[in-house]
């Protein structure tokens, strides 16, 4: 597999996980909603900043999830 294919698969997986999280959106706490949103935004930002790097996408999603969780804690 080429790096481009892996990047595309990682992006599709990230969107799928975010969509699955939204399917149960009403029963989620504000922290969980913040973590899901942060992971999605962080993954997209990480991919954009690093030019589609898998590590950048996953790292951005992880950091975004943590930040979103902490923001959701205070709501």
Automatic annotation (TrEMBL):
InterPro entries listed in its UniProt record: Gly_zipper_2TM_dom (IPR008816)
A Pfam family assignment: Rick_17kDa_Anti
Keyword flag Signal: yes
Signal peptide: 1-20
GO cellular component, one term: outer membrane
Domain Glycine zipper 2TM: 34-72
Taxonomic superkingdom: Bacteria
Keywords: Signal
Protein name in UniProt: Glycine zipper 2TM domain-containing protein
Organism the protein comes from: Pusillimonas minor
């Amino acid at each position: 597999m080429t790096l481009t294919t892996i990047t595309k698969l990682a992006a599709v997986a990230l969107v799928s996980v975010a969509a699955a999280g939204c399917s149960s959106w009403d029963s989620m706490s504000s922290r969980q909603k913040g973590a899901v949103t942060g992971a999605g935004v962080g993954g997209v930002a990480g991919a954009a900043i690093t030019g589609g790097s898998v590590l950048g996408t996953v790292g951005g999603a992880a950091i975004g999830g943590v930040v979103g969780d902490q923001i959701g804690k205070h709501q």
